[in-house]
Amino acid sequence: MSPDIEILIQKISRLPGLGNRSARRIVIHLIQRKEQILEPLLISMQKIYNKVKTCPNCGNIDTFDEICSICSDNSRRKDLICIVENVTDLWAIERTSCFNGTYHVLKGLLSSINGQGPEFLLLDKLMSRCQLYGVTEVIVALSATVEGQTTDYYIKNFFKDSNIRVSSLAHGIPIGGELDYLDDGTLLTAFSARK
Amino acid sequence: MSPDIEILIQKISRLPGLGNRSARRIVIHLIQRKEQILEPLLISMQKIYNKVKTCPNCGNIDTFDEICSICSDNSRRKDLICIVENVTDLWAIERTSCFNGTYHVLKGLLSSINGQGPEFLLLDKLMSRCQLYGVTEVIVALSATVEGQTTDYYIKNFFKDSNIRVSSLAHGIPIGGELDYLDDGTLLTAFSARK
């Protein structure tokens, strides 16, 4: 095996969810079907590389001209902003089609371990968007981890003196979840948040 | 998500071992780290695309000028040829460093279901290599499947009237394998091939 192929295997093996063995299988697959698979994949990746960028308005990563397709979509409510940790979470919410507002993608959560302070939340940019579009509600859709909840609390506190409603996603039993298998924390939250 | 990104996710999800969800994770990873990960990966793939080809001598797929690095390596025995089904198997044997000859990579195994006849074995090319280099032994290293063993038998038959020794890999208990978990076929073979 030539060093070029070894380098490619190494690069692919570092992608999330892959290891050395699966990377080798993928590379073999690619080089055995150079014209049918490797070439179209290369063209597709090249296109993404040339066109993908971060939306200056919301922080979404996508291919667009000035602002991303969500921000430029006139059928979406500009006065409703959902705060998400990253683009993965944005995609997850978009897949459900339950949200018809716009997003604010954080650069990261508050994390003393990773040295991420409030500047990662880009709250000044969010505030100026709130004033510009007359935002009435901000939905904080962060993970139910320590860092997610700390950030949630910080954001709520930031908007305390404004007249913007700030809400968070509900915590409780996941749909299809069996009580028996739930951890105590979730069960406790579900109890105290009963309605 | 733009159609370009969706197309890339689709293409990646069709690679071996990947699905929709893992492809999405990989694409997110790539576009969030465009400069650090997507760009080097693209360059590496482009290089492979431009340089990789099939060795006219043995059928190995690699990056080389005239013949592959194994065929052009003077420290390797040219009079010993190992027949493998594909490049994956060649790589597997190379990883063990137990073989110091050259290879003959088949285009496929004999398979009536897939309509693959003896022309997939490229035996004429192998025979002329045998005559050219004065090959003394051919090792048939094919999988212990029905198609592998049929091909093994066909190749042995092909060399019947020549003075070239044809051997196959041994079948038996895999190293580290527990008798209790072995299938009957392997156990039976291991018994009858005891030494």
Extended strand count of chain A: 6
CATH architecture of the largest domain in chain A: 3-Layer(aba) Sandwich
Overall number of domains of chain A: 2
Give the CATH level 1 class of the largest domain in chain A: Alpha Beta
Q: CATH topology of the largest domain in chain A, anyone?
A: Dna Topoisomerase Vi A Subunit, Chain: A, domain 2
Low-pLDDT stretches of chain A are none
Radius of gyration of chain A equals 21 Å
Succession of helices and strands of chain A: HHHEEEHEHEHEH
Fraction of residues in β-strands of chain A: 5-15%
What best-fitting shape of chain A do the alpha-carbon axes yield? globular
Structural class by helix and strand composition of chain A: alpha/beta
Strand order of the largest sheet of chain A: 4-3-5-6
Compute the number of helices of chain A.
Answer: 7
- Range of helix content of chain A: 40-55%
Query: Biggest interface, and residues per chain?
Result: A-B, 48 and 48 residues
Mean pLDDT of chain A: 91
- Quaternary status: homodimer
What is the CA–CA distance across the termini of chain A?
63 Å
Instruction: Let me know the largest β-sheet of chain A.
Output: 4 strands, parallel
